[in-house]
């Protein structure tokens, strides 16, 4: 169904306007603020019943009306200044049959015909994808939540993995068994005690030597005491001989080797401790790497599930695909600076066409299109069977609203 005729009375800035496009394209031409939007709203707001203006009755008037002939249906809407912002809707067949639930009836044949192409293109790529999914009934909320959760886990895993890898230290792979330093310490103490005992005997030996010398001197001076001192001297000589024999049998034992061995053992044990820590650390690295790989695989799995879910829905625009960050058209970002104006509008019309039910009409602002681009859009719409309502800015000085019908 398309608009065959249209009558507008006291709607916004329009007093009385009758148009009979008979299903052909309609051009609303005027300077800005001179009624183009009012004219188009009279068609599209009434048919969809959405985003109605809060004030619809023309200033100074009590009532207004919009009547639209769709060929198979007649749609009438009356408005009053008393109850502005609302409309009373009637829907009837060409033979006069009036439908009891006009809005329900109209919704069943209209669909989304007031798709805002310019507004859609002005959205961020991610918002475009979200809106298109919503329009097409693609619900990936559960997968998006899973993706966000796994993405956060992977970020934490990456952080842990980086910390673990940055804190890895070199180690001696051969240092795995500790040496008993306590046993070596006990050996060193035994040697130290033996040496201390020997040093005491050395001191005693030196003292006895001095006493013998003193005794011999005393013997020279005191011959009278020779016999008395001889026994004492003999005893001390014998005692000294015994000590000499003992010292000869018990030479001094150096402890430098043991001290060096203890130092080496401590260094070895430190290496063993380091090896134990680093081996455990490397196990942590391996575990975190496996966890990270698992999370990466899960993200890929979620992406694949989303892709399968999206692929199951027929895309309304040839060459249009989803990415995580937005939409692509023929491999290029679906953005103004990537798509020419005519292709942008045709893509929007293709989206709009997918949302149609039985009423095949669409609106867009053609002010930025040159004649060749406008002709390209019109040619596509004609092939697609869509009736266009096109806004154009008047450039010839005519500031009033002018409605033209395509040939």
What does this structure look like?
- By secondary structure, this protein is α+β, with helices and mostly antiparallel strands.
- The protein has two domains: 5-113 and 356-405, 3-Layer(aba) Sandwich (Rossmann fold); 143-312, no CATH class.
- The protein has helices at 36-48, 102-110, 117-122, 125-136, 141-166, 181-221, 226-249, 256-311, 341-355, 371-384, and strands at 5-11, 14-19, 26-30, 63-69, 74-80, 88-92, 320-323, 326-329, 332-333, 361-365, 387-393, 402-405.
- The strands form three sheets. It has a five-stranded antiparallel sheet with strand order 2-1-4-5-6. It has a four-stranded mixed sheet with strand order 10-11-3-12, with helices on both faces. A three-stranded antiparallel sheet has the order 7-8-9.
- Helix 6 packs antiparallel against helix 7 (226-249).
Domain tally: 2
Helix content: 40-55%
Tell me the number of strands.
12
Rounded to the nearest angstrom, the distance between the terminal CA atoms is: 19 Å
> Major beta sheet, specifics?
5 strands, antiparallel
Strand content: 15-25%
SSE-based structural type: alpha+beta
Short précis:
The protein is an alpha+beta fold. The protein has helices at residues 36-48, 102-110, 117-122, 125-136, 141-166, 181-221, 226-249, 256-311, 341-355, 371-384; strands at residues 5-11, 14-19, 26-30, 63-69, 74-80, 88-92, 320-323, 326-329, 332-333, 361-365, 387-393, 402-405.
